[in-house]
Amino acid sequence: MENNNNNNTSSSKIGRRFEGKVAVITASTQGIGFSIAHRLGLEGASVVISSRRQRNVDEAVEKLKAQGIDVLGLVCHVSNQQQRRNLIQQTVQKYGKIDVVVSNAAANPSVDAILDSQESALDKLWEINVKTSILLLQDASPYLTKGSSIVFISSISAYQPPSGMAMYGVTKTALLGLTKALATEMAPHTRVNCVAPGTVPTHFASFITDNDTIRDSILGKTPLKRLGTTDDMAAATAFLASDDASYITGETIVVAGGMSARL
To answer: pTM of the prediction?
Structure first.
């Protein structure tokens, strides 16, 4: 299991904004998803984490429990209808409600140009990055509490899809529109917002961050002169999901060290 960059947030340094709340986070046993679960858990939430692999689930559950976090871990490939429904059903069976949903699952099966992409790759990109976010909320919506919060995890690539990840970027652009559309549909009882991470060294982004030339190019375009951390993304997500953002819906926060200022 990867090192989840700076996953050492101390509970003494943060509040307890999620005391008594239940948060479901998809693709949450590594990287950004794990850090989000960790942060929400430190702030008092009961967190429901998931991954395609049982081993990853077990390892992540052990780490979170060691921090005193109440956690339920389940295997869930978001494109599997039964596993997706089981994720929601098991959550409701144990906790009786859902206060927060963070849709973090994503795939990038191809580095081909858009017009060179195979249909199977296009199908997977749309299914994992967009369609399953909608289907998950269809399953979860009957159990969302008044004042609940949805957060989609998009990407800085949503604003300017990069070469080699262009179609991935396009699907992340779709999440920006989905955020606005659902914010209207789900108001006033549920808020819907989005976080667009910049470049963060995780297993998912390793083909970018492990390349010195690409990494240096990104740093050169980043006013804060560093890459992001998973904790940076977790902090922004926790803010949007919390009552501190109770008058914010339909918005996207770009967490990219100032890169968006140059787009």
So the answer is: 0.92
